[in-house]
């Protein structure tokens, strides 16, 4: 029975070890901010942080993440960087349908925490794992830059 | 008649003939034991890989083998009397496995690895037969081979066999340990490793002087698996080799793709730890042979976008589609299967297996629990969504970033590989 | 998919505002849209709304706006939010005239009710076709104004003064001496007052909300993960299902071996359906694993041998049939007779999947006496009917709770997945959430039709067109979706959009449409549909004419747009912003496209660089827009940006193909989508306009592909007529730092 540390809380979950973290979060723990889009690490909708790194939870077997620090979109408002990314997202009216945006924000926070002043190219390379079918890319770039400047 | 049905017939009679009971039970246990042994051996011999199509019934055959001179199709080996081997006698079956001659005297092409299976004893072969005969018969007519002259002249095989088939059983080497001998038997006999890993001569026979030195097959590189430290597996820790064989991957050393992934999926992952260890012991002792591609010496990479890579398009494609699983440091983000560092695949200037896996994708079953669900270790094929130029460039990027070689792949190279 | 906007000005509309008190207290303002089909709508609103507790459940929300005794304003939202910002725009129209703050408005999704919520342009209750702003522009403002007038009057009566000296502000009425009464305190009295004769509306310079950049109402929960889409819903005792549907359209289930699947922990039920097998699990993972472990045999049926080549051949063959005449002006044969410069071209556009990021999903519960759905749908009434049909219940026993949609692009105008969810749910007693895997979603879509277009035109001595003949061949979406809307000879009004009436001055115009439905695929609406297709081929071919006439593509278009001042204006603006005419290095090029789309005018210019290996880099992408009065400029911009890149994605990469009746693409590795690294910045320039608001959700999508191929021609001299560009080996280069 894997023990997980998610957003600072400990959870014991009775699930098979090969079950991807995504479904544990969504269906077992009821944290549905993390989304399913492809299941093969191609869209980024399921992005969470594992020890501070952006990872795709749809292909991350839960058995392998015990003892690691997991953070999800639900906890982004607890950190200063998370909050400023979220408010930049609102200020720049990034969101359209919103389905990809949890993942986008998780990737943006991970990018900014490693590269606080990314240029266009760094933003592109850091964020290109996250698809947005509404194609809000122009605004994502703008929002990330505004956080970088602040 | 399937074993299950035979059993029920026997049990039905038991009430009346109590004295039979013990004997019958013994027969049952013997039979059951023989079938179980046969099943294990059939797995060790990887029969299924060649006798099942993607959506087909197990052992019903129909798999196409593209050879330079045409196509062969594996036959139905379920106990169906009409289309399978249901009418075969023990003798027929043993002859096929040891001599490459099927019922009715038909010679097989050595795509069927009887030159390896011949090392198995009659008793073992009959255990495999018992197992196959315990399965449900599948009615599926065999596909005719599609071979051009003169290769379609099966009698030619008699001559070939005379030259290249040693119709002999495995002889243990008394100077070596039991474990070593078990390993040698598994590698040379049922495992038929040399069929892929030993280069072939002009006559399509294994070149004994280059045993297990590696070659290409179906567009994939079957690596050098001799004990050579640089280009073979000599420097691999035993645990790494054991993990590679039984799980298809050993982080920092190897990841099975293509035909080798199939060998793991259908065969190797079912072997006991002892047998895997035996294979390790034997392979580590196979005389070293050197070959072109070596394992990349360790490289310290950061999990950051590289700034000095000469393949901007490849770098972009890697960022778009690959980095989510593989990471910039090649460490494998989600699962150790995605680790790229240390693989010969990323140090092969021709990028043979690299391009292959991009074209075909890959899937490894990670456990032997019988869970047929999708395992974490799969990679989709990227050829449909990406241009040849992009595939070539991302390959060049991978080779220079994770390996120590400069790939020279171009869009045309990918075109050629697609034709293979 | 549009009808004449003038319907909105129908004089009978004034009678359609009804006001009444609610049984539970409060004021109800029902503003019904012009009842194009159902004349009795207004009466019904009042009846049902007044009782406030109509028995059927869904109808209890029988009105658009309610103001309750606490002053809360509820807007029953006839349009579903799927990223276009529609709910906020509509709320702003109401709040503007009602004089409340946007944040005071609560939105509630409308239940299915064709009578109440019909879209007057579309003629049924739906979200789509970029009609929302156009349909609700007047009615919602009038409803707000009605409420305000009544509330002010009620306050004035209370204070015994003239309403002239009172003012409504921020949800309260203020008197001249500092008196103040909140709306909640006034609703009862207001409900007794007669509907005002005159409902004056604000002039644009008085707007506080409309035309100003506004923070959308739906976005805060979408940046912290709390917004719930259909896939996120969790009901008590709910379980999760996924399906494997026969990979060949029209095939049926022959048999299924579920022994392996049942062994997977968490798998609860395996339910064979006519053309699918459903696996229900405790969690999605169990359901997915179970579905993968099923060994299924199908009867593939007649389509099992079908391939893309055959479908395309059928289109080619059909092109020689007569089809239906959409336009026949002048005498094309005579006009082209003996003309020296004649140009012919054949264009092709592929089948496209929607690939919304939220895969198809629907929660359904079927009880003996009722069925309840929780699903994001663009067509609640159709959802209700589909569920009724499958469950055998009467439609009024089907409750539809509409949900936020994670991108639809037309996909949720279809109800196939809803019917499937109900089909599964009727086998169990608990609610079931059906989620398709991405693979199922891609392979069981209803696709944008594959079109084949043939052109022939002749030019006079000045290079101007003297005749233009255009044959369109493709599947008819209308024929499947609403056959009653088809014209004579199967003329599909959607398939001929733009093509039948190009904005250019084209004498001797003949346009034919030959319907040819693909057998192995169903076709449906896809963001932009008909207009997207029309804009691509017309704008591509007009560019070819300009080149043949050796004239600048912008000048040439301007010449043919004599009576189109709005089109001219956007074209000029885009060209100017793009630096049109300035020389570019070798291998670089600019391309342009302009048209009227969904009631708005748009011009797009692409500037790109190419390499001999097929690499391309879009350096600039400029859009000039006249969408009439921009309700929310920020939303307009973001819709144009997103829509343009959405169209770019398809133009670059997308094509659905079929082999042995199976759709070949399955997920984002082989049905690739544009990423941030492929996406150039989009420069949007708005023209200040007071015209009636036009649609913007699909406009950008329609114009990018022609601008792109025109730019490629300028850069390389190669004319791409068949999309996507990846077919021709093009790929996107990394952006320069
Ligand atoms: S759902 Fe995980 S990357 Fe798409
Ligand atoms: S906002 Fe809709 S997918 Fe990104």
Automatic annotation (TrEMBL), chain A:
Organism: Modicisalibacter luteus
Record-given protein name: (2Fe-2S)-binding protein
SUPFAM superfamilies linked to this entry: 2Fe-2S ferredoxin-like (SSF54292), CO dehydrogenase ISP C-domain like (SSF47741)
Domain 2Fe-2S ferredoxin-type: 1-76
Keywords recorded for this protein, A-Z: 2Fe-2S, Iron, Iron-sulfur, Metal-binding, Oxidoreductase
Range of residues in the leader sequence: none
InterPro entries linked: 2Fe-2S-bd, 2Fe-2S-bd_dom_sf, 2Fe-2S_ferredoxin-like_sf, 2Fe-2S_ferredoxin-type, 2Fe2S_fd_BS, Beta-grasp_dom_sf, Diverse_Oxidoreductases
Taxonomic superkingdom: Bacteria
PROSITE patterns documented for this protein: 2FE2S_FER_1, 2FE2S_FER_2
Oxidoreductase among keywords: yes
Automatic annotation (TrEMBL), chain B:
A Pfam family per the record: Cytochrom_C
First-listed, main subcellular location of the protein, grouped into a coarse class: membrane
SUPFAM superfamilies xrefs: Cytochrome c
Residue runs in coiled coils: none
UniProt entry tagged with the keyword Metal-binding: yes
Stretch forming the signal peptide: 1-23
Source taxon at top rank: Bacteria
Domain called Cytochrome c: residue spans: 33-136, 178-287, 309-402
Full protein name: C-type cytochrome
Species of provenance: Modicisalibacter luteus
From TrEMBL, chain C:
Domain of life of the organism encoding this protein: Bacteria
Aldehyde oxidase/xanthine dehydrogenase a/b hammerhead domain location: 224-302
SMART domains registered for this protein in UniProt: Ald_Xan_dh_C
Protein name, entry field: Molybdopterin cofactor-binding domain-containing protein
Species the sequence originates in: Modicisalibacter luteus
């Amino acid at each position: 029975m894997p023990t997980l540390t998610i957003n600072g809380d400990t959870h014991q979950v009775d699930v098979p070890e090969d079950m991807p973290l995504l479904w544990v979060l969504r269906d077992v723990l009821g944290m549905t901010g993390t989304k399913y889009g492809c299941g093969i690490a191609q869209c980024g909708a399921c992005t969470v942080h594992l020890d501070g790194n952006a990872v795709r939870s749809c292909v991350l077997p839960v058995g392998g993440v015990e003892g690691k620090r997991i953070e999800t979109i639900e906890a982004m408002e607890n950190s200063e960087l998370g909050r400023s990314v979220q408010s930049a997202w609102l200020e720049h009216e990034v969101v359209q349908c919103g389905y990809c945006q949890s993942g986008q924000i998780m990737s943006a926070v991970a990018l900014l925490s490693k590269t606080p002043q990314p240029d266009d190219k760094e933003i592109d390379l850091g964020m290109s794992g996250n698809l947005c079918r509404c194609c809000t890319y122009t605004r994502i770039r703008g929002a990330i830059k505004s956080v970088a400047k602040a | 008649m399937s074993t299950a049905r035979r059993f029920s017939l026997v049990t039905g009679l038991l009430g009346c003939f109590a004295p039979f009971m013990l004997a019958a039970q013994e027969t049952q246990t013997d039979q059951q034991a023989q079938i179980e042994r046969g099943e294990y051996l059939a797995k060790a011999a990887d029969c299924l890989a060649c006798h099942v199509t993607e959506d087909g019934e197990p052992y019903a055959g129909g798999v196409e083998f593209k050879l330079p001179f045409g196509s062969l199709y594996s036959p139905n080996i379920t106990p169906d009397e009409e289309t399978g081997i249901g009418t075969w006698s023990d003798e027929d079956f043993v002859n096929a496995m040891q001599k490459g001659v099927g019922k009715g005297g038909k010679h097989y092409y050595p795509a069927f690895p009887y030159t390896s299976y011949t090392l198995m004893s009659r008793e073992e072969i009959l255990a495999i037969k018992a197992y196959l005969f315990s399965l449900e018969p599948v009615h599926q007519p065999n596909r005719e081979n599609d071979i051009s002259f003169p290769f379609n002249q099966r009698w030619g095989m008699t001559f070939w066999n005379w030259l290249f088939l040693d119709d002999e059983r495995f002889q243990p080497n008394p100077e070596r340990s039991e474990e070593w001998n078990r390993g040698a038997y598994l590698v040379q006999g049922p495992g038929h490793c040399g069929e892929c890993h030993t280069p072939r001569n002009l006559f399509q026979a294994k070149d004994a002087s280059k045993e297990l030195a590696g070659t290409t097959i179906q567009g994939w590189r079957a690596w050098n698996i001799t004990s050579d430290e640089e280009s073979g597996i000599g420097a691999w820790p035993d645990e790494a080799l054991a993990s590679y064989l039984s799980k298809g991957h050993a982080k920092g050393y190897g990841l099975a793709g293509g035909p080798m992934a199939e060998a793991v999926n259908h065969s190797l992952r079912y072997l006991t730890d002892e047998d895997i260890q035996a294979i390790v012991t034997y392979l580590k002792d196979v005389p070293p042979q050197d070959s072109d591609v070596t394992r990349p010496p360790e490289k310290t990479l950061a999990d950051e976008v590289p700034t000095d890579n000469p393949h901007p398009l490849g770098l972009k494609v890697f960022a778009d589609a690959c980095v989510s699983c593989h990471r910039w440091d090649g460490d494998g983000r989600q699962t150790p299967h995605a680790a790229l560092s240390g693989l010969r695949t990323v140090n092969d200037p021709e990028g043979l297996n690299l391009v292959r896996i991009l074209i075909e994708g890959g899937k490894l079953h990670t456990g032997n629990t019988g869970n047929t669900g999708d395992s974490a270790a799969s990679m989709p094929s990227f050829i449909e969504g990406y241009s040849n130029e992009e595939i070539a460039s991302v390959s060049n990027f991978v080779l220079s970033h994770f390996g120590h070689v400069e790939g020279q792949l171009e869009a045309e190279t990918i075109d050629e590989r697609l034709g293979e | 998919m549009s009808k004449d906007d003038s319907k909105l000005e129908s004089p009978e509309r004034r009678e359609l505002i009804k006001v009444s008190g609610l049984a539970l207290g409060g004021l109800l303002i029902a503003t019904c849209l012009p009842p194009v089909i159902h004349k009795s709508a207004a009466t019904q609103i009042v009846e049902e709304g007044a009782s406030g507790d109509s028995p059927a459940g869904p109808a209890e929300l029988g009105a658009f706006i309610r103001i309750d005794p606490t002053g809360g304003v509820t807007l029953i939202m006839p349009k579903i939010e799927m990223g276009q910002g529609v709910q906020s725009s509509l709320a702003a129209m109401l709040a503007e005239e009602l004089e409340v703050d946007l944040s005071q408005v609560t939105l509630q999704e409308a239940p299915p009710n064709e009578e109440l919520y019909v879209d007057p342009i579309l003629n049924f209750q739906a979200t789509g076709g970029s009609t929302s702003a156009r349909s609700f522009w007047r009615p919602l403002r009038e409803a707000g104004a009605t409420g305000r007038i009544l509330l002010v009057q009620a306050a004035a009566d209370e204070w015994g003064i003239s309403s002239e000296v009172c003012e409504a502000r921020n949800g309260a009425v203020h008197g001249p001496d500092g008196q103040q009464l909140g709306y909640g305190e006034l609703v009862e009295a207001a409900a007794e007052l007669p509907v005002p004769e005159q409902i004056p509306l604000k002039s644009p310079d008085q707007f506080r909300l409309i035309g100003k950049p506004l923070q959308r109402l739906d976005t805060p929960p979408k940046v912290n993960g709390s917004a719930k889409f259909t896939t996120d819903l969790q009901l008590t005792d709910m379980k999760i299902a996924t399906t494997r549907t026969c990979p060949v359209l029209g095939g049926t289930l022959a048999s299924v071996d579920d022994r392996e699947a049942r062994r997977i922990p968490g798998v609860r039920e395996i339910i064979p359906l006519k053309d699918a097998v459903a696996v229900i699990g405790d969690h999605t993972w169990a359901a997915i694993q179970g579905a993968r472990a099923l060994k299924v045999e199908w009867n593939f049926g007649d389509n099992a041998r079908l391939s893309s080549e055959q479908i395309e051949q059928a289109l080619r063959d059909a092109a020689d049939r007569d089809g239906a005449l959409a336009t026949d002006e002048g005498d094309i044969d005579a006009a082209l007779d003996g003309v020296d410069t004649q140009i012919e071209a054949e264009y092709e556009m592929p089948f496209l999947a929607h690939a919304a990021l939220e895969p198809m999903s629907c929660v359904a519960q079927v009880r003996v006496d009722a069925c309840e759905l929780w699903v994001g749908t663009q067509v609640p009434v159709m959802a209700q009917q589909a569920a009724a049909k499958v469950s055998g219940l009467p439609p009024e026993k089907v409750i539809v709770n509409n949900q936020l949609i994670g991108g639809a692009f037309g996909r949720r105008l279809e109800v196939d997945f809803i019917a499937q969810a109900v089909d599964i749910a009727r086998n169990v007693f608990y609610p079931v959430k059906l989620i398709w895997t991405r693979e199922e979603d891609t392979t069981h879509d209803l696709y944008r039709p594959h079109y084949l277009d043939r052109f022939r035109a002749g030019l006079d001595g000045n290079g101007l067109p003297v005749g233009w003949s255009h044959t369109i061949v493709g599947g008819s979406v209308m024929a499947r979706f609403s056959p009653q809307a088809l014209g004579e000879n199967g003329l599909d009004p959607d398939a001929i959009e733009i093509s039948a009436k190009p904005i250019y001055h084209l004498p001797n115009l003949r346009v034919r449409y030959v319907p040819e439905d693909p057998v192995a695929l169903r076709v449906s609406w896809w963001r932009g549909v008909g207009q997207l297709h029309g804009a691509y081929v017309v704008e591509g071919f007009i560019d070819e004419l300009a080149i043949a006439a050796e004239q600048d593509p912008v000048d040439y278009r301007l010449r043919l747009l004599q009576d189109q001042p709005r089109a001219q204006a956007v074209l000029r603006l885009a060209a100017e912003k793009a630096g049109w005419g300035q020389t570019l290095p070798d291998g670089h090029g600019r391309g342009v496209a302009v048209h009227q789309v969904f009631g708005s005018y748009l011009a797009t210019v692409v500037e790109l660089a190419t390499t001999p290996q097929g690499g391309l880099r879009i350096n600039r992408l400029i859009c000039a827009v006249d969408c009439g009065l921009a309700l929310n400029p920020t939303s307009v911009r973001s819709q144009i940006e997103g829509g343009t890149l959405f169209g770019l994605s398809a133009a670059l990469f997308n094509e659905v193909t079929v082999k042995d009746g199976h759709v070949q693409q399955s997920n984002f590795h082989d049905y690739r989508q544009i990423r941030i690294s492929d996406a150039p910045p989009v420069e949007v320039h708005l023209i200040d306009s007071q015209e009636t608001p036009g649609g913007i959700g699909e406009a950008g999508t329609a114009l990018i592909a022609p601008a792109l191929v025109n730019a490629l021609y300028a850069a390389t001299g190669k004319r791409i007529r068949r999309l996507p560009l990846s077919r021709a080996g093009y790929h996107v280069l990394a952006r320069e730092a």
